[in-house]
Structures are given as C-alpha cells and as structure tokens.
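Support request, please re-run this one:
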Amino acid sequence: MRYKKWSQTKKLLMSFLCDDLRSRVDYQLVNYRKAHDQTGRAYITVDKKEVLNMCSLISMNKEAEEEQRIINERVLIYDLSDTKSILETKELAVTINMNKGIYAQWDFLDIVNMFLHNPIEVSLGSQDLLTNILCLLDRRVGKRTLRRMNESIQDHHELIQYFYQLRCEAEKV
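Re-run finished. Output below.
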C-alpha cells in the first residue's frame, strides 16, 4: 500500500480528532535509521504520556513467540515446504497479537490509511482494536453514538475502555 508522507498523514489524522482532545492526544511515528531495516515504532500519547506503543521489533518477537505457541499447541511439524500451513500459522499469530493490542509500525500505517479512506460507519463496524480506538477519538462519532456504546464497551479490550472513558470525560457524556 502506498503511503503519503507521515507529516501529511498525521495532519489529516489530527484533523479528525474531536475538538476537546486535540491538545491532549498525539500520534507519533519514529524511524530508527541505524536499525537494520530502518523501521521503528508508532505510538499514541495522551497528555504527553505514551498509551499505545506499536514497535516493529516487539511485534515481530511476539509474533514469533505466538507462532511457536500455535505450533506446539497443534503439535505441528514445521515443514518448510508447506507454505500454506506456514502462512496460516503466521496470519493467526498476527491476528492474535493485534487482538492483544500488539502492533508493528507498518500495521499502524496500514490501519490509519484504511481508516482515513473508509466512511466512519465502516470503521465503527470494525473488529480491529486500533480502528476502534481511532473511531473513539474521531469527531464524526457523536455523543449519541458514544451513549449507545456504553453497555457494550465493557466487553472490549482495556485500551478501548480507556479511550472510551477519555472521550466521554472530554465530551462530558
């Protein structure tokens, strides 16, 4: 997927923040030039405190651990010629980690890109944790929608609950 420059993407993403959170929430992207692959991390801050860290290296390590757990759990013989099984295991590990809130920098960029190009109604229906966080911070999600989410939010990940509470306090809902 082709990306705009981060400065342009961030400007657009920040323009979707609800007014009451504009001065409190920030999105950051850091690339480490001396790293072997020159990737880094993305993170979301609230009141200048890091709330969600999306480090590529941590994500890759957790993904490898999860893949190994899946292989051990299923008692799979890891055959390098069986690419279908390898890809399925890898995709499952990535999905499990994303459900836990473990993202890589490129996952963040992919999700932000989809979020910015989809209507808010599509994003609100997403099962992805990061997409849900972006929706909770979005000015297009009004007070009525936030009130409707009140009961179902208790079943979601603690990060979603945190951002829901942040938004409700900011909007005085």
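The longest helix spans residues 56-74. The longest strand covers residues 25-31.
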